[in-house]
Amino acid sequence: MVNDVLAIHNGNYSWNIAFERGLQDLELDDYALLLTSLHEVHIKVGEDDRSKWKSGRDGIYSVCTYLRSILGSTESSFPWKMTLTVDNLHRKGFYVTEWCYMCKRDGETNDHLFLHCEGVRWLWNTILTSQHMDWVMPRRMEDVLRAWSRKFRDKDSGLVWNLFPGCIVWCVWRERNIRCFEDQAKTTEQIREWFYMTLYT
What we know:
The protein is mainly α.
């Protein structure tokens, strides 16, 4: 607890942090950064503690302000940098097998996995065919989301239409992780059933 490491004398305070073991040389920079961060914290002695989210205008945490704080300004409403596909793992310094778990061929990028992969493209085609639409798939997922809006007379139909891309991404990502971490795979028919069950429940 903060009270265990914070010493207050005559209205002034200091941090008294003790570790159970000595610090390694490679940990000293992190320790110095920790102390610097703690000394930048302004503590009002005698007042009750309260949490305040600095990235929000009103000081209240929200997922939206969190995403903005880690992604910066972006045109896309989906946090693509957070999906840990192979290409994003490479950017973070992790090196893993360069292949797609859905088709077991091409390198795994967001655009490949969610749009162009043979193990996923059939799902897009199923939806578009059910809506009697011919669609040339854009290269990037962000472009699909921008172009997806469509006017409907029936409000419920418009709502379902707008849910299609997010539902596909969710189901594909779940299936991809099951194949990656549990070494199991659903059939095409099982994925289709799972998609519609997710969409309508």
